[in-house]
Input
Amino acid sequence: MICFNCDYTEGAHPKILERLLATNLEQTVGYGEDLYCEQARGLIRKACKAPKADVHFLVGGTQANFTVIRSALRPHQGVFSAAIGHINVHESGAIEATGHKVLSLPCGPEGKLTADQIEAAWLAHWEDATHEHQVQPKMVYISHPTENGALYTRKELTDLSEVCKTRGLFLFLDGARLGYGLSAPETDLSLPDLARLCDAFYLGGTKCGALFGEAVVLTHPQLQSDFRYLIKQSGGMLAKGRLLGLQFLTLMENNLYLEICGKANRQAKEIATACVEAGFPIYAPSPTNQQFFIFPNRVLSKLEEKYLFALWEKIDASHTAVRICTSWATTDQHVKALTQDIRGLRA
Amino acid sequence: MICFNCDYTEGAHPKILERLLATNLEQTVGYGEDLYCEQARGLIRKACKAPKADVHFLVGGTQANFTVIRSALRPHQGVFSAAIGHINVHESGAIEATGHKVLSLPCGPEGKLTADQIEAAWLAHWEDATHEHQVQPKMVYISHPTENGALYTRKELTDLSEVCKTRGLFLFLDGARLGYGLSAPETDLSLPDLARLCDAFYLGGTKCGALFGEAVVLTHPQLQSDFRYLIKQSGGMLAKGRLLGLQFLTLMENNLYLEICGKANRQAKEIATACVEAGFPIYAPSPTNQQFFIFPNRVLSKLEEKYLFALWEKIDASHTAVRICTSWATTDQHVKALTQDIRGLRA
Amino acid sequence: MICFNCDYTEGAHPKILERLLATNLEQTVGYGEDLYCEQARGLIRKACKAPKADVHFLVGGTQANFTVIRSALRPHQGVFSAAIGHINVHESGAIEATGHKVLSLPCGPEGKLTADQIEAAWLAHWEDATHEHQVQPKMVYISHPTENGALYTRKELTDLSEVCKTRGLFLFLDGARLGYGLSAPETDLSLPDLARLCDAFYLGGTKCGALFGEAVVLTHPQLQSDFRYLIKQSGGMLAKGRLLGLQFLTLMENNLYLEICGKANRQAKEIATACVEAGFPIYAPSPTNQQFFIFPNRVLSKLEEKYLFALWEKIDASHTAVRICTSWATTDQHVKALTQDIRGLRA
Amino acid sequence: MICFNCDYTEGAHPKILERLLATNLEQTVGYGEDLYCEQARGLIRKACKAPKADVHFLVGGTQANFTVIRSALRPHQGVFSAAIGHINVHESGAIEATGHKVLSLPCGPEGKLTADQIEAAWLAHWEDATHEHQVQPKMVYISHPTENGALYTRKELTDLSEVCKTRGLFLFLDGARLGYGLSAPETDLSLPDLARLCDAFYLGGTKCGALFGEAVVLTHPQLQSDFRYLIKQSGGMLAKGRLLGLQFLTLMENNLYLEICGKANRQAKEIATACVEAGFPIYAPSPTNQQFFIFPNRVLSKLEEKYLFALWEKIDASHTAVRICTSWATTDQHVKALTQDIRGLRA
Output
């Protein structure tokens, strides 16, 4: 079986493993205070043009999400999320486990939130005479790319950022697949934009070529305070912290992060083109490494003899939406095989 | 101003105050282990025909809700609720504060959940390959009457109870206004039905004639274990516990609970009749003490010169849904004045 | 049996019940926003000479403790408490249930903390290279009177307050029995002192003549923010909030609070004098309504034929420390009987 | 500087890196459900002679501790720990953050708990009339080796296990350094003993030669239920789960785990012998890879010119206790240098 189901089926980009090997017997201090972490933090700050930002390395995405959120919110405060947001549906209630309600807002297939939505929801809270009996919104959580691969434009993110600043909300961007977002030709958003517009965000490693790891960037001074206590308490402080530093150092050097993600985007586009040309309808439009198409079940069964996809939604009795995913590790040979097979099957 | 905005604008039924006065200088043990509490528990068990049920007195509804829920669930489990359920929107995130997600399900204006909904939502969880990444449903929370005054039929509650038993879910009924539900002529549900069909429920005191207090009935043996620890930890164990026992003793004697709530239901019906006859549309149909009507704003402004209502929803630029509420304390004179004024205003 | 085991065996001071009766049929808004609450808040602010303080009425002490603490602390922060502090041993882990460690410090039989202890513990945290792996101290919790009836002097409380200010710690005083503390002739602390020296404290009602209720006074601006959300979420917002306002209004008028507690103190002193004269050793010295003496078990058995005490500690095989407690409701006749019996038994 | 401060200054045993390299481009399913994890689980079950045990791989020790504890306890329950236990002092309040009190019990320098202590503490809870106002003990947490390197004997662990079974307590053993414990010549405890006597325990990887990772073994059926939800919710479910499986597979094959830890124990013993012979007093006796000695500060300063130790406790103005730590990566050359220098310095 050839896996197109997700972007974490292989290990890590070979350069990362090389580096782990080369440094294996060095002795360093633990818990993220070693020189490799410091260097990686420096490169990230520089790439973000955010010299005052704090950068922390955490092991995984769920951990990054709940650690940032519980660090930022007081007990009566909640976080807005698109209905399909990862924190709302795919983290086993990790946010609620830290005491905070995820304030779900409706979204289209792209999975984006709009500034107008936030403004309206904020007003709905504060204009209600009984707002003290409700969860107070204090943060906006978005993913970029979204769960369904879509990207915010600079205009959209700027609008979100402005309503957040005006209304006293923190803006937190889940960048589990940020590399794919930043390297998409369609995007007009750069790392410095994110650092300027968001109060917190992260560069995902796990799904973008690392063995594991997410680099959390905290730009809002209030969110920087005591964050290492929170990491430790949340079980996210790796003893051999340099493993995270080394990985991000490798990814941030020589543009590797964007290069390998950009390659995956291009492969995804080839697959999407094949699907479109073969007449399969788009489930959710995406310029990044995740593509979402609706297949007749008989077509899908045929494809599933050779390929693994992620089943995304049962559309009706005879159609299913699937996610097709590429990554740094996807080979052109596999893409070629798949696109040929798709073209051969037609809608 | 004459208050029709809620059912907790006055103190307590005079018989309750009499009893508090009469027993004031008696010395009793604290924390709900006195004889009055024991007697009240006995009367409630008897009225429920549930000799093995545990009965606990808590101070308020939010407290009762989160204490029962956190006692019943493991950390990864959540509770189904209608979207308008009190725990989902009017308790400042109290359930989430104890670590559990409220699994919101859509509902109509009546605010009821159906057995089919629960079955479908349960299956959706367990049939999903990634269910371990989602909150596991383990309890169903309903209110009776609902937030909008509606009542479950015995058939509906039996169906809910059966799906819960089949699927291993606890069924928990919020009875903050249970007296109004049990005394409505339209209902075919009795206390023994509730005790038989639910794993936990409570008889509300605060909104049904007491100064404060809710009598939680736990019928499922698993929910009975160590519940007093949970009450204490949750801040719900009244030092002078007899205050709760004395109030429920008074309410349960001589049918007082149903008598005073039944009177309020009849008054509510008079008001509803006037609204209907005057041509104002029903917002949500209710056989109990809360009535929900849509008024043109100009009519509402006129009424608000004399009466206080609860604003329920802005329907459009010129119409508003309001809740009109009666209670044990509502006077016939006030009802007469309101119905006359409503009839005089017409839609 | 005559109860000397605690100060919450009776109902409420008769003037409180009179007031509840007199206002019973008035209609007021709920949730503590009525005029009686406002008046009571005004009297408390005035008595505290703290016009900018926020005053909130909560139902009980455990609730007051955890609501204040969880409102003040971030997730990685903890609260210092004497080892015998109520939050450390008698609230079923309510503080931990909100996510915070109680940082227990050793104390003598009086149950007091000292400024030097706090300074040393604070330094021990911050001077440890691994402090990020430990709970960060952020609050000091004391009770006044302490669990064992002792009182801080103005000098002691001033020193505590200073170290807290210097070290950025909140000072929170549990005043469940504050009336007894303020009315003790031995004290040099007044309500304005507490309001000036503490960031948060409360005037206990439950154990000082009310049916129930604690008046939380928040003087630190940071602690005032959004506190009503926290009360609601913590299950402490009484629907008929005026019940709390009316009780504190009554207690604060005409010096009733201090008068009735002062009477109980005098009765306790009579009992203590009898114990001392009869040769029974003091377990913990107290100038307030709780007295702690060590009785031979045979003496205790004899007394327990007529009187109920709280067993405090098993001292050895043949001696037990007990708490003897008076209250607003204790009659001189009962005190006379007890002192005579004690004198007749001798050590 | 030569690091003897801890056992996580290097990367991983070379065989682990080899394996990661060799499998890097294989495609596997995520979240610990791949074949390597399954094989590793099989080897661990076999080594434990516990075919029915559940084995889960988590990233780190704090995570393993709080995930097991919050999975096992109801909200009002707490966990006994030695005062110096890792969960009590070095996890930033992670256990309390999940709502549970760590019930600290006194311990000697070895850091062990005894069966008698547990029995006495259990009785103290249940014999207290107000036990419902206290945290209910439900679990015993021990470390093996302890924080200070000591080992339980089979007799001691059997006694603990028996009191736990009798009193309905879970016994949970933190094995962050278990490899060193199992490979110490002094021990009479084997993996099958642990699996038989404990309800949950883990084989530490992070400090025993892996890059990271702990293998949690759950033998009690009640603790096995739904544990994967808890891992996910707690942020401990690695997307590329095979990284954990591959590491434990490598460690469990050909006795590597015990072999590399045994080597470190022997090196630690050489260092200890040098310290004893040079006349430095033992701070806490240890047969494992951590050694604790008291040095005069002038000696320590001299040694610190070349070596890094962990400062453990300031003994007095001129003496300090330090931890000297070896690991799989410690070279004989470094040990030789250190022992020579120690012998040259004398007490």
About this structure: The interface with chain D takes residues 31, 70-71, 74-76, 98-99, 132-133, 136, 226, 228-230, 232-233 of chain B (CB under 8 Å). Chain B has 15 helices and 13 strands.
